[in-house]
Amino acid sequence: MNIDLFFRRSLSFCAIATAAFLGQAPAVWAKADAPILVLNSLNADVSVIDPKTWTEIKRVPVGKEPHHLYLTPDDKSVMVANAEGDSITFLDPKTAQVQHTMTGIVDPYHLRFSPDMKWFVTAANRLNHVDIYTWDNKGGTFKLNLVKRIAAGKTPSHIAIDSKSKIAYITLQDSHELTAIELATQKRLWTIKVGKTPADLYLTPDDKTLLIGLTGAAGVEAYDVSNGKAVLKTLIPTGKGAHAFRSQGDKQHVFVSNRTENTISRINWKTLKVVDTYRTPAGPDCMEMMADGKTLLVTARWAGRLAVIDLEKKAVVKQIPVGKSPHGVWTLNHASRD
Fold it and tell me: Which of 192, 256, 271, 303 is buried most deeply by CB count within 10 Å?
């Protein structure tokens, strides 16, 4: 199951029966109503944003230092990774209610499922290792089974996994390196030096080009990874502090946040050229592309806000105050990640 497939709407038999008895049409939950979740890394909580009123409607306590989040393979939970809290909090993607918390997951700064849903990978940014898990949902309880802990360089940061679920690419932020791990054997294939302070990665849908945001520089490095090795193709100038990626969902463009420059660059990943630039509040970081294809969400780390960018107007049209150092942002009502 692809985690980016649209959420399958469902109605309970009881709800349908009750509505029929009352002579009313049963209410269908609309994906557009899904809340927007913003992780406040210095508050240990999640801001829940109403996408209709663009206001924060509540805060949900999670663990210490939540940074990134990911949807489970069954589409029923959003996993909030609490790096300093060594835990993962599971939220209902439709209501943002806490379902349960899994403890003993050591330093889950960044997290990814492989596309075939066999593997679950975390990067321990604080403790310098990469963990590879299998998982199961027997008896309705989600469990992670650690297969191997792999020592890495300094500050493992972000993870990208190829479409065949064979290779995980991980940036090593303070070693200024990129490493590749074969998932089936849990062995490191190679490690190379890259630009200064590499952070997020974007692997093109054809698995041929890997983009790396250089937070310690002013651009994105593009590597050819089509032949089992990483060969630098070009440096794409974007802005100071290039950091996080989000695809537009049109199979051609990807956004990168330039955290120091206070901009977002739109890159044509086929030509490796910047085609648009958008100004943002201070410290743009993680992004989410709404399903309408026109609305880009971005957390502003230093401003403590969620910014809403209208891509047609090329401008920030809303700013919602959230918590301290907002990082990850996600909604079920999102565009494709291709």
Answer: 256
Tally the C-alpha atoms within 13 A of residue 249's C-alpha that lie toward its C-beta: 18
Closest CA relative to residue 333, chosen from 32, 115, 84, 25: 32
In degrees, rounded to 5, the angle at the alpha carbon of residue 8 between the alpha carbons of residues 3 and 11 is 145
What does residue 14 show for φ and ψ, rounded to 5 degrees?
Answer: -60, -45
Contact 308, 54 (CB under 8 A): yes
Q: SS3 of 16, please?
A: helix
Six-digit token pair at 195? 């630009």
For residues 62 and 284, give the distance between their C-alpha atoms in angstroms, rounded to a whole number: 23
3-state secondary structure 115-167: CCCCCEEEEECCCCEEEEEEEECHHHCCEEEEEEEEECCCCEEEEEECCCCCE
Give every CB contact of residue 104 below 8 A, 6+ residues apart in sequence.
Answer: 86, 87
pLDDT for 283-331, tens place per residue?
A: 999 999 999 999 999 999 999 999 999 999 999 999 999 999 999 999 9
Which of 189, 160, 155 lies closest to 175 in space, CA to CA?
Answer: 155
The model's pTM is 0.90
- Residue pair 93/75 in contact by the 8 Å Cβ criterion: yes
Contacts of 163 (CB under 8 A, 6+ apart): 115, 205, 207
Query: What is the model's pLDDT at position 29?
Result: 55
Please name the amino acid found at residue 82: N
CA 298/CA 98 separation, integer angstroms: 24
Q: Each residue of 175-194: pLDDT tens digit?
A: 999 999 999 999 999 999 99
pLDDT at 2 over 80: no
| Close Cβ partners of 141 (under 8 Å, ≥ 6 residues apart) | none
**Quick check: 84 and 66 in contact, CB under 8 A?**
no
Q: What is the mean pLDDT of residues 256-278?
A: 98
